[in-house]
């Protein structure tokens, strides 16, 4: 009887340890998503329609120079995009940085009103009507920003830009 | 002759249907195996978020472009990481996940065996 009780006890402890380890390993690492897996990757190749003149342009034509590019995914219906807009205007004043906008699942008129209202920080805007270009970039939604150098993704920001990120990127592109 | 032509039309109509349906079924199968990354516990097939809808469009496009099921998974794994697939592959990160049920099964077997022996004694 005593032996049986003991072995049962041991077994219970073992199970508990196993459960603990499972959760310890599983919960410790964030599984939501890790933007890191895209860092240092080459930019995807895609082609899209330009916002202002409706002409097609390929990614090779856009990111052809050896300088920093800031690619920002935005939409007029996205509230955080409004918040981060002032930072994009600040980025526009920096030298040696080209800002590319990807207009995500938006209506043309709405996007135009948005830019008229808040001013246009973009050097070039590409239209992504069905959201498939954003997927090529491994994006989750709006807003999202990529810093690109030498056809590689240097930094990926999910969500709106803020002061800290502004100075971080400013330092990076120096 | 007329009859033959009629049969041919019917034959073609049915066959074209089948290939279209196959593509659609495959599309559903693939989107059901993709995790909607911005939703909680939903597959891309079940979700109606912007992200999921874009993914559905993309899968459809890729299938039309002649991509294989595996190629689409590989493409998305490359973009979003292993986490986007429900059916994860066996590797050093997932061996625990895959072997745990087997381990539990074996442990259950040991318990049963032990009980059996104890009762016999």
Polypeptide structure, described:
The complex is a heterodimer of chains A (174) and B (121). Chain A has 6 helices and 7 strands. The radius of gyration of chain A is 23 Å and the shape is elongated. Chain A has a 7-stranded mixed beta sheet with strand order 2-1-5-4-3-6-7. Helices cover 41% and strands 23% of the residues of chain A. With 174 residues, chain A is of the alpha/beta class. Chain A folds into 2 domains: 1-31; 35-172, Glutaredoxin (3-Layer(aba) Sandwich), CATH 3.40.30.10. The termini of chain A are far apart. Chain B is mainly alpha-helical and 121 residues long. Chain B has 2 domains: 2-89, Orthogonal Bundle (Helicase, Ruva Protein, domain 3), CATH 1.10.8.640; 90-121. Helix content of chain B is 69%, strand content 0%. Chain B is flat. The relative contact order of chain B is 0.08. Chain A binds chain B through residues 4, 7, 11, 22, 25, 31-34, 37-38, 44, 104-105, 130-132, 134-138, 140-141, and chain B through 37-38, 50-51, 53-55, 57-58, 61, 79-81, 83, 96, 100, 111, 114, 118.
The total tally of domains of chain A equals 2
What distance separates the N and C termini of chain A? 75 Å
List the quaternary state of the chains: heterodimer
Shape of chain B: flat
- What value does the average pLDDT of chain A take? 88
Structural class of chain B: mainly alpha
Task: Please tag this protein with its features.
heterodimer, A: about 170 residues, alpha/beta, Glutaredoxin, 2 domains, seven-stranded mixed beta sheet, 6 helices, about 25% strand, B: about 120 residues, mainly alpha, Helicase, Ruva Protein, domain 3, flat
């Amino acid at each position: 009887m005593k032996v049986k009780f003991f072995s049962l006890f041991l077994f219970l402890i073992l199970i508990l340890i196993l459960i603990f380890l499972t959760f310890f390993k599983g919960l410790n690492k964030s599984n939501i998503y890790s933007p890191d897996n895209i860092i240092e990757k080459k930019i995807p190749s895609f082609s899209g329609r330009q916002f202002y003149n409706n002409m097609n342009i390929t990614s090779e034509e856009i990111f052809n120079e050896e300088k920093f590019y800031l690619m920002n995914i935005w939409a007029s219906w996205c509230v955080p995009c409004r918040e981060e807009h002032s930072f994009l205007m600040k980025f526009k004043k920096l030298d040696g940085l080209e800002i590319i906008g990807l207009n995500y699942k938006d209506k043309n008129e709405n996007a135009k009103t948005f830019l008229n209202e808040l001013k246009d920080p973009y050097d070039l805007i590409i239209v992504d009507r069905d959201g498939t270009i954003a997927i090529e970039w491994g994006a989750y939604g709006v807003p999202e920003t990529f810093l690109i150098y030498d056809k590689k993704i240097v930094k990926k920001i999910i969500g709106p830009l803020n002061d800290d990120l502004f100075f971080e990127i400013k330092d990076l592109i120096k | 002759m007329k009859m033959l032509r009629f049969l041919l039309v019917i034959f073609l109509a049915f066959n074209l249907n089948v290939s279209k349906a196959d593509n659609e079924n495959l599309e559903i199968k693939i989107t059901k195996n993709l995790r909607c990354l911005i939703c909680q516990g939903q597959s891309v097939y079940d979700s109606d978020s912007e992200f999921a809808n874009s993914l559905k469009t993309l899968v459809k496009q890729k299938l039309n472009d002649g991509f294989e099921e595996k190629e689409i998974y590989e493409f998305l794994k490359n973009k979003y990481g292993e986490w986007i697939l429900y059916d994860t592959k066996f590797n050093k990160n997932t061996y625990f996940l895959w072997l745990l049920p087997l381990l539990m099964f074996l442990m259950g077997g040991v318990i049963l065996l032990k009980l059996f022996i104890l009762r016999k004694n």
